[in-house]
User: Which sequence fits this backbone?
């Protein structure tokens, strides 16, 4: 196409119009314009020679170029909005991730605290099951040891005597 094509998209579309809707309208208009060009050149009296075909194709090409330029301008106008929307989507996605990570961390902390509390409770229970140690004098400890030794010897002797038969079982 020779020269630059003038085009004023602000006359056709307002600034606030959505680009995708505008592009759909442009494509519909493009189809109509190509059909009009074809009808203009299709005539029973005209022989579709190479010259007529070339003229028809060059006019269709100019219509296509104009439409593509309009679509390009609409996309450029709409691009900042798309970037803003994408940034907002990323921002909300990141915020959601941070919230989920915090919740997960809080759950993990709760689990750790519960495990620590259970371990403390088990230790306390185990400590309460053991007999308490009492502070004793040395002489008391020796007496306790002797008593334990005497009892074990007595039990052993009793078993031995029962085994030998010297002691009758009386129960």
Assistant:
């Amino acid at each position: 196409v020779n020269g630059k094509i003038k085009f004023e998209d602000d006359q056709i579309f307002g600034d606030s119009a959505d680009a995708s809707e505008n592009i759909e309208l442009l494509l519909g208009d493009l189809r109509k314009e190509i059909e009009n060009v074809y009808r203009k050149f299709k005539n029973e009296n005209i022989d579709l020679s190479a010259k007529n075909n070339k003229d028809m194709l060059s006019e269709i090409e100019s219509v296509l170029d104009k439409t593509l330029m309009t679509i390009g301008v609409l996309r450029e106008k709409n691009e900042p909005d798309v970037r803003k929307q994408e940034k907002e989507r990323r921002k909300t996605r990141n915020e959601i991730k941070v919230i989920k990570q915090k919740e997960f961390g809080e759950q993990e902390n709760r689990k750790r605290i519960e495990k620590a509390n259970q371990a403390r409770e088990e230790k306390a229970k185990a400590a309460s099951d053991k007999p308490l140690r009492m502070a004793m004098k040395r002489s008391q400890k020796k007496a306790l040891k002797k008593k334990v030794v005497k009892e074990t010897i007595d039990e052993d002797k009793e078993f031995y005597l029962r085994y030998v038969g010297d002691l009758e079982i009386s129960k």
